[in-house]
Every structure is written in C-alpha cells, then in structure tokens.
Design goal:
Radius of gyration: 14 Å
Number of strands: 5
GO molecular function: 3-dehydroquinate dehydratase activity
Distance between the termini: 7 Å
Pfam family, one: DHquinase_II
Bound molecules: 1,3,4-trihydroxy-5-OXO-cyclohexanecarboxylic acid
Catalytic activity: 3-dehydroquinate = 3-dehydroshikimate + H2O
Pathway: Metabolic intermediate biosynthesis; chorismate biosynthesis; chorismate from D-erythrose 4-phosphate and phosphoenolpyruvate: step 3/7
Helix content: 25-40%
Keywords: Amino-acid biosynthesis, Aromatic amino acid biosynthesis, Lyase
Number of helices: 5
Amino acid sequence: MNVLVLNGPNLNRLGTREPDIYGSTTHDDLVDLCKRTAAVLGMDVAVRQTNHEGEMVEWLHEAADAEWPVVLNAAAWTHYSIAVRDACAQLTAPLIEVHLSNVYQREEFRHHSMISAVATGVIAGLGADGYALALRWMAKHLE
Ligand code: DQA
C-alpha cells in the first residue's frame, strides 16, 4: 500500500521555526519517523513538502488519480485554502488531517479548518507522533 504524506508551507523550517510551539524536530526527522513507522507497518510511504499551493494541489490530484491514502498537514492553507480543500474532496481513499500543534489552543484564526469536513479524521497537538499514529490507522483500516 502506498501512502502519501504531504506537508505544506513553512514546515521545511521545523526545528528552527517557533521552537516553543513546534519543538526541535526537523522536517528530516519527520521524514525519518514516517519512513521508520511505515517500514514496521509494511507500507510504502512518500513524504513531500512544498511552500507552493499549486504544487500541493497537483500532488493531491496525483493521489486522487492513484487512489492513494493521504496524511496531510496543510499548515496555514488549512485555514483558508478553498483550492486545497477542493483537491482533498476529490480523494477517494482516506485522508487524515494532521497538525503538530493543538490549533484549538492557539489563535482564533487557527480554530477553523477548510479540510476537516472532507477528511476522514483529524489529529492535532501530538507533535510528530501524530504522523505515526495516522500511518498506523491507515495500516489498520486499509488492506
Ligand atoms: C500547523 C498549524 C497551522 O495553524 C500553522 O499555520 C502551521 C502548522 C501545525 O502543524 O500545527 O504552519 O499546521
């Protein structure tokens, strides 16, 4: 089974970006965690990050066409991108929305997600472990 893990804007800056909120885990660490988790679960995972909305939309189209499950941290796009949401709505396999931080403890503008209504489930506030949990759910529910 192929699972696509997609990360949106500024997540390449993990490790140096607002460490009080996002901790010291880097994007490379996140990729490593996803790959190690996937290996244990016997699944193939690809982890991608972009700061360009159109590129994210095209990756979601690719996932829709291939019927791949997706773990998505759309970062700031979560809160306002109708384009990313519309691309998510085309997925036929499960979509798990992940946030490193607990967005509900933060600014009001982070309390609304464009994605949640079209996601299978949402994980927020568990740091990088949220990605591993999402992959475990995929492994359990997809065969
Ligand atoms: C985030 C939360 C978003 O509000 C923020 O814009 C991000 C990261 C998270 O993982 O906690 O860039 O998605």
